[in-house]
Amino acid sequence: MLKQTLLKATQAGAKVLQQYFNGTFEVSSKDTINNLVTQADKEAESAIIDVIRETFPDHFILSEEVGELRMDSNMKWVIDPLDGTVNFAHGIPICCVSIAVERDEEVIMGAVYNPFMNEFFMAELEQGATLNDKEIHVSTKEDLASACLVTGFPYNWREMRNDPVKVFKRFVENGNPVRRLGSAALDLCWVACGRFDAFWEHHLQPWDSAAGALIVQEAGGVVTDFDGYPYSIYQKPILATNGLLHGDMLQVINNG
Ligand code: IPD
Ligand code: CA
Ligand code: CA
Ligand code: CA
């Protein structure tokens, strides 16, 4: 029932995104001018929550736009109704719905769906990860010098531990191709399926990473903070790699 609801909720959110994409919709700014929220974010979120509430009215919900809908439950849904809002608002089809389910504070299921590429990523704890129902694995790249990397930058530059631009510069100076998709959930999924060898970002929220981090781990990758400790979705910095490059990535991030 959990998995069915997860799939149904993800599809419901994606349907809203498809309805609005490249059409007209309300857009407003949050704390900074480019931190956008659209009508599609909000309506996708309502559609997702309606599906979850229908089957699990007593589960806790944490979702980007509405925040916490607290319930006394060991089950929590962590929702990003539209990851890649800036892309969406500019008609760039690199955006997705991302939903994860936590049981006793452990992520046990995650789904990330980009309806514009028809790519549905999914993972269950200890069950592996899939893209459109086919098993996926991280890359086998061992050499950082030829690794293809992806990162993201925060909207708001306050409270950064180490300067994201300096870290970015070090990788660029090393000659690495570094991409910036604009959707952390897809960055993670694209590491999981081997398109990228590693992803790092300084300041993510739980809804950005909850599903994608599980998908990377279940595809054989490693996800930590910038000190190399196991990743929790409630901490901000994230490093996700194919495992083989993890040590080298940490070294560049921290020391250059
Ligand atoms: C953002 C995207 C972006 C990342 C930002 C996130 P949103 O999420 O994941 O790639 O760099 O830190 O906030 O606002 O599009 O849901
Ligand atoms: Ca946002
Ligand atoms: Ca997000
Ligand atoms: Ca979002």
UniProtKB/TrEMBL annotation:
Needed cofactors: Mg(2+)
Enzyme class, spelled out: hydrolase
Molecular-function GO terms, alphabetical: inositol monophosphate 1-phosphatase activity; metal ion binding
Catalytic activity: a myo-inositol phosphate + H2O = myo-inositol + phosphate
SUPFAM superfamilies: Carbohydrate phosphatase
E.C. numbers: 3.1.3.25
GO BP, sorted A to Z: inositol metabolic process; phosphatidylinositol phosphate biosynthetic process; signal transduction
UniProt: Mg(2+) binding residues: 64, 80, 82-83, 208
Keywords noted in UniProt: Hydrolase, Magnesium, Metal-binding
Membership in a protein family: Belongs to the inositol monophosphatase superfamily.
Protein name according to UniProt: Inositol-1-monophosphatase
Organism: Chitinophaga caeni
